[in-house]
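In response to reviewer comment 3 from the previous cycle, which asked for concrete evidence that the modeling workflow produces usable outputs, we include below a single protein chain processed end to end. The sequence was submitted unchanged, and the resulting structure tokens are shown without manual editing.
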Amino acid sequence: MGLDGIFSSERGRRVHCAVNLDTKTDLSLETIDAALDRARDRGEIVELYAHSPGRTVKPEVIEHVLAGAAERGLAPVTYADFANGEARAPGLALSFDDSSVRAWSDTLPLFARYGARVTFFISRYEIFYDEEKALVTGLAAAGHDIEPHSVNHENAPEYVEKHGLGAYLRDDVWPSIDALEADGHPVHAFAYPFGARTTEIDDAIRQRVPVLRSVEFSYSGIVSPCPE
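The workflow returned the following structure tokens.
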């Protein structure tokens, strides 16, 4: 896999990048295996993400990743681990974005089977029903990491260009952090919707969270927002 941005060391990186496992990306199992092999062989942490198990990503793909990581001795890494200096390499940082809390909760037995700890980057938490918030609490109780992914899932650079940096932070970032913290979920990281970011926005958000997550696109001909 030529996506160098998705491989990290244990510490020191502030803007992380992951590659999408969802079916629409058509990422082959052979490519996934090559990424897991590289992490093992070079002592790196490979970062992968998806959205909704059973809808956007096949459960068998998730299991392939988890089984492959276990077979290669890759440690499970969360973004809180990165922030706290506790990430172990070689490792796998697997995350899930958006708000499919029921599908995530249904996948807990699969995570437990492989001793996996993953990060859930949650958007629109502020409008969750009590039942959905209880599921989030259950994910945290199972040892997984709960982090914000914005309020309205805006494209950050586009929103800043139209409304200003202060408005983006006020409307889409800070409330997503505040809501999680108010319900007892300490925040260590923030994932950009669409991975869209700039250095100016990075610096502003890092006033409150030490680690940011962007993405590395696997599509040819598309410029990735992952910093070089």
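The CA atoms of residues 106 and 207 lie 35 Å apart. We consider this sufficient to address the reviewer's concern, and the full set will be provided in the supplementary archive.
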